[in-house]
Amino acid sequence: MVDVSQIAYDFQHDRLVWGGEAMIMHCHHYNCFLQRSIQDAEYIDSAPFLVGAAAEVAYGQLRQVLADAANVGARKNAVEKLYRTCGFGLIDLSAVTERGGEVRTRSTHYSTGWREKFGRSAGPVAFFSTGFLAGALAAIYGLELGSVQAKQVQCRSTGAEEDVFVLGRGASNFTTFEPRGKPELLPIGQQAEPETPVNREGITQAVVGMPLAGNAQGMIPAFGVYLTRMYADYYNRISFAFERELIGVSGRTGIEVASGLFIEAGHVCAFNTMGGIMTSAEWDGLVLPMLKTRQDWLYGIVACVNALGWGTWKVLDVTDSTATFRVYNDYESVGYRSMYGTADHGISYLATGAAAGLMNLIYVGDIHNKPALTPAFYDRLFKAPGVFRAKMNRCMAMGDPYTEIRVVRDAPALRAADSTVTSDSA
Amino acid sequence: MVDVKAIFDWARDNGEVKAVDRILIKVMLVLIRNKITLTAAAIEKMEARMDLPDELYSAIVAAAESVVGKPVPQNLL
User: Fold this and answer.
1) Which residues are CB-contacts of A78 (< 8 A; sequence separation ≥ 6)?
2) Structural domain of residue B46, as residue ranges?
3) What domains appear along chain A, each with residue ranges and CATH number?
4) Is ipTM over 0.85?
5) Which of A80, A118, A377, A390 has the greatest number of C-beta atoms within 10 Å?
6) Count of structural domains, chain B
7) Per-residue pLDDT tens for A237-268?
8) Residue ranges of chain B whose CB lies within 8 Å of a chain A CB
């Protein structure tokens, strides 16, 4: 089955599992920022694990998804469709045989996204697609993942006409990881959230039902970004593999340095994707009529977050200067525990950054006035004094029953933020 | 020994939000080689000049220029 609309969303845990892999929504800003943060450490050879992480999840998923496909042709068609549906781009596997082959394309999420966000790159950037193709080759032909190779030899982000990937056989030229354990989900707490006229469940259900699938170019342009329906464990693997490498180089200082950049990636995510959602026509039609206060805006966007597959987010309390977010089964913790067991430090970086980002958009950035989501606006929300900072107080990966993020405005507000939204647009 | 505090300040003012973190991650090996522990929080709190070995200074200048995307002004070098 390769039609994502036929995959049932798990509303109890706010997850989407497809072929055994948790799939989550993220945009090209987050994807490219996260990858660039990893590649900044040029003394760490990140390409093998960037490719290997994608190969791991694609191989794991495709072996399940392709189980019922009648023959090689049907398996190739299914892989091409899944890749396009998820917003990864377009691939044509017709030239690929059991021995490998070449895949040429003019549409790849990372190549397009990188060029749009950062401009021309010095080298190929589509590590995800490289690894996906390695996993696909192995899954289509029933090969061991450790017996295939993949390399990107041209990349549109560098100015080339096409992305070109070369697949072959031989001992893998990317990292193969220890098998992951079965994901362990913890029960969702039943504590009440603050009263609001916002229909949280209705919003989550409506967003889950939106037709967010790749177009003819294999892209998902929505809310001003290119979305992907990405593997949660791709992000988890590349983040935690990098963090472990950095700890090997620099000890515990590596955690501090890496966490700063990973949390920043969460800011980037919130600003672009959540900001895009809150300034969209879909928001105006579906959510805006329920909103009276800034608190309502937070409840509304968190209801959208719960449609992205990130786990179950709850807002326990919120004022003009503080908020507490509790997240059950955040995808980072679920992934970490399945890969490495119990963590000795908090690792829910995306959740931490996103929580602060939401508060900054609503209480500092007056998102209800529909500001343009420009780099200058981003700097104002995250660089200026008097903005919100988040602290991870509890983390499920450390053995806590949930992850909890406390967000506090780090200096007296620059101006009083009235709880009532009074802009022209709200 | 030369002062790099001004370079970090310039990068923070002219670069992206986490410019200092990106510089630190780029030069981490050189920091370790020189047995120096430096974090963005420590730099933020530091008010006085920060003198570092020449090798590290050069690495920080190169990383700052890469992160900010323009040369460090001559008056800071």
Assistant:
1) A2, A65, A66, A69
2) 2-68
3) 45-169 (3.30.1380.20), 200-211+219-409 (3.30.1380.20)
4) yes
5) A390
6) 1
7) 999 999 999 999 988 888 888 899 999 999 99
8) 16-18, 21-22, 24-26, 28-29, 31-32, 37, 39-41
